[in-house]
Amino acid sequence: MEDFLAIGTAPNGESIYLSELSGKTLADNGLLNTSGGLYLYEACEAANSFGIRVLASVPSPDAGYRMMDLLGLRVSA
């Protein structure tokens, strides 16, 4: 995983991350034919997840922060 732009905390205490992910990281997590870019994702312990679950692709950091706000996440940069 790459450097985080932000980490949000959901009301249930789970962390949601905003950062760029490479095409390889996405492919390793089952998202084939997907180029790298900016994503919201969470840690995932499922056997076939390779450590993350992608929740959304976002077109810009501002859109990512807005999505985190709409989800009610407490954000730390």
List the helices and strands and how they pair.
Elements: E1 4-9, E2 15-21, H1 23-28, E3 37-43, E4 52-58, H2 61-70, E5 74-76
If you had to describe this structure to a student in words, what would you say it looks like?
The chain has 77 residues and is of the alpha+beta class. It has one domain (4-76). Helices cover 21% and strands 39% of the residues. It has helices at 23-28, 61-70, and strands spanning 4-9, 15-21, 37-43, 52-58, 74-76. The protein has a five-stranded antiparallel β-sheet. Strand 1 (4-9) and strand 2 form a beta hairpin. The radius of gyration is 12 Å and the shape is globular. The protein starts with a strand and ends with a strand.
Overview features:
single chain, alpha+beta, 2 helices
Short description:
This protein has 2 helices and 5 strands; from the N terminus they run E-E-H-E-E-H-E. By secondary structure, the chain is α+β, with helices and mostly antiparallel strands.
